[in-house]
Amino acid sequence: MADNIEIIEYLKSKGFACQELDFKGIKAISVDVEIAEKLIELIHFPSSEIAGLPVFLLAKPSEIGHLAHVLNYQEYGHDFGSICVNDRDSVSVNFNMPLLAIEESLNRHIDILEKAITDPIWNRQELLREFKSCWLNVCDFDDRPVLLTNDNGAVEEIDVFRPVKGRKFGVRSYYLAQSKDTELAAAAKIYWQDNSDRSLAGKAVVLPLTEIEPAPLNKGQLENWYLDILSKQKPDILKKLNDNYGQWKTYKYWLFFNAQVPSGKVWFCLSFKSKKGKKHSLPLTERQLENWNVKAVPIRLFNKEAILPRGGANLDLAETKVALVGAGSVGSEIAHKLSAAGVQNLTIYDPDRYNIENLYRHVLPEEFLNYGKSGGLSFSLKRQFLWSKANSSLSKLLDLRNSKLLNTYDLIVIAIGSPTHERLFKEYLLEKDIRVPVINTWLEGFGVGGHAVLDIQERRGCLLCAYVCPDTLARGLGSNLNFIEPNQNVTINMSGCGEQFISYGAMCSAQTALIASDLAIKFLEGKIETSSKVSWKGCEQDAQKHGITLTNRYYQFTNSLKIQPLFHEDCDVCN
Amino acid sequence: MSIQAKFIKFHDKIKLSREDSEYKDAREKDDSILKAVKKALKEEGYPVVDNFLQGSMSTSTGIKNPGEDFDIDRAIVIAFNGSPDDPVKVKKIVLKVLEDRGFKNAKIKKPCVTADYTSKNLHIDIPIYREQNGDYELAVGKKNSSDDNREWSASDPKGLRDWINDSSLYIGSANKKLEQYKRIVRYLKRWRDNKFSTAVAKKVFSIALTVMSKQQFRSSLDDSEKANDLVALRDTVNDMLHASYFSFQGNEQYRVRVTLPKSPWRDIFDGSSLNTGTQFYNKLTVLKSKLDQVIEETDLVKQCKILNEVFGDDFEVPSSSSTAKKAAYSTAGASGTSQGA
Ligand SMILES: [Zn+2]
Prior knowledge:
- By secondary structure, chain A is α/β, with parallel strands linked by helices.
- Chain A has helices at about 5-15, 100-120, 120-130, 130-135, 185-190, 220-230, 235-245, 285-290, 305-310, 330-340, 375-385, 405, 420-430, 505-525, 540-545, 550-555, and strands spanning about 15-25, 25-35, 40-45, 55-60, 70-75, 80-85, 145-150, 155-160, 175-180, 200-210, 250-260, 265-275, 290-295, 300, 320-325, 345-350, 390-395, 410-415, 440-445, 450-455, 490-495, 500, 530-535, 565.
- The N and C termini of chain A lie far apart (about 70 Å).
- Chain B is built from 11 helices and 11 strands.
- In chain B, the strands form 2 sheets. In chain B, strands 1, 2, 3, 4, 5, 6, 7 and 8 form an 8-stranded mixed β-sheet that branches.
- The chains are: A alpha/beta, B alpha+beta.
- Zinc ion binds near residues 461, 465, 571, 573 and 574 of chain A.
- Zinc ion binds near residues 461, 462, 571, 573 and 574 of chain A.
């Protein structure tokens, strides 16, 4: 590591004015920079190792005003401004040449400050954009966070409940405020709203702001900032607030603000606690405020628009209806991935009960043993994916041969690993001319791979294309996508008849579920318009160990995860 | 419909296997002759210790040929111990069995005893071996050969058969590749019978086509495991031309030389004429370029027209390219798959 003298000499040689400083025994380096005729001092505390972009702090930040990308904090009894230079973690730093790293970082710090100081319009826009992180800088974290469920942000008065006593984790450790008309899954609502152990803490009002200002620089500015913001709102909002809400007298009030900033809709919260243990209504004027202590507190918002896209889910899939047939190791993973992608209307079909043998290659925990796999799965999906409306049925694939039912779905995903039933079902669809898109997916034993085919009836290519017999070019019995040659004994028998199973691990079922889910989601999002197939290829060691021989396709296959056309020129249905 | 479907149809038409109904008579004759030969040899003190099929019937590379005889290559093996020094002695016993059963033109040829069953279109070859510890010796010599031309000559008939049937070097779908190879042998035999005069065709030996295409075989399966016989045949023929079987003799003439891959490692074309070598080379070159043409061509009817000209009328030419396909079902009752979920 370079020592301070080296750094100072180096920076001086690059034209910077710098010197060594002493903060109560800690040596630091100060660099003076002039920006728009303002003298700015940057402080660098050398570290023993360069593991990230070297940090320069802004000295006496309050003298410079409210700058975007600068957050104030105290250290060694001094105020410092922490300057946000990009995403520090995403920068790869040359730790072998520390002087170069320090110089590069210093220049980046100066560029940010220069922009913020010389371009006030940009500065304000940026302050609004980063409203949320600025707000967190003035928040108090001594209390439990508030969890708010709200879809639209309209003015509303809501009861706020205390956390369940003794709970440190999960939703029950939060204050809970639930708006009346949210679309949360029934399972989540019931589970959370378990108010038996919660007591009423006070009232909250949701307040949509029509005008917004950058967040206050420090906690001392909170009250003035609040009054200033109120004064800038459209009069009718304040009147509505005054007339209809906040009349309730209580010891504690929360205001849940929402406002549009350049980065989207931002939610933040002020909490008001009565000063003298007396009940008061919501303070809207300077005088009323005298009765209250004001704090900014963090809130967690459960809101479809906020949470789904943040998790990569697609709101457009909310209305899509999908049937998943098979809730085994592959099916359960598909259910999880489809729900995570935003599919809310998922019907899961499976007649099986959850067994102890299933535990290691299934997503359900032990509590669901003996439960129907489909029922257990839909329940757990609704717990994790709060807007999921998953439901379940014990019907089998062949029970679904009902055109009225099938025509209600946008997509059917079949993950049962039964070529006989799957072909029977396909012939039913052909016979009745039912044009619902279907994905069939299956894996093969010994980790050699898995497959998924998307059959869009209007398009060339169908399930039977994947079953054209390679030798006779007639309808075959096994898929021509398979990596394991037909008519070999691929099952392992541990304890007699009825106990045979195909050997594969959870990785294989998860990987297979991924290609099937990817196909499903891309199709539902309109990114795939032709009947398609996709496979993933694993390794052959386990198969070889069991004397299982593989197909030419396996050895030639280089298109793992790639979506390819399904059409086969010898398929009788497609020709 | 794909060109491969046409190849499969063509192959179904030309293939001859021991299970075919056309072959039923021959099979029955084979069984009864074998019985009689065994009995006669046992009575003479040379008990038969083994017998097996040799030739195209043992490797599933036989083809039908209208107007030609069905062949039976039935190898007879006697024990080494107690076998006569004179191999012709055993051959004469077999000859007598055939003559006694009414074969008019039964005769002892150098490598075997042969006879024709004229009314049945049946041609029988019976090579005789003696065996010790898995080593075989062929009874060589004609009825009136001098002693110098009579010998028990080292041979490896089973080794050759197993070499042709071997698929252990094919990686992935080995059986499919072996079957494709055998179809290619049949295509080449039919091409030979269609493109050469009868006299020359007889000298372009089946065993030579079998060995050359085995050594140069290039399989072709597509991503659905479907064979592409057209490409496999073209690639194999191309490699046959460029391997060292044909040597240029000047004056646009070629000599062909193919060594048997098993004992006695002889040149299959030993004593073959320049005319045979030259015709073989030239016609194989034309075949290759015709196959290239078919691969280039996209219209199914035009493809089939060229192939019809190469292979004869058993390669059908459809009336149009877009014949609607009827649902055809698997002929297997069930097939084991590795599919699960
Ligand atoms: Zn099809």
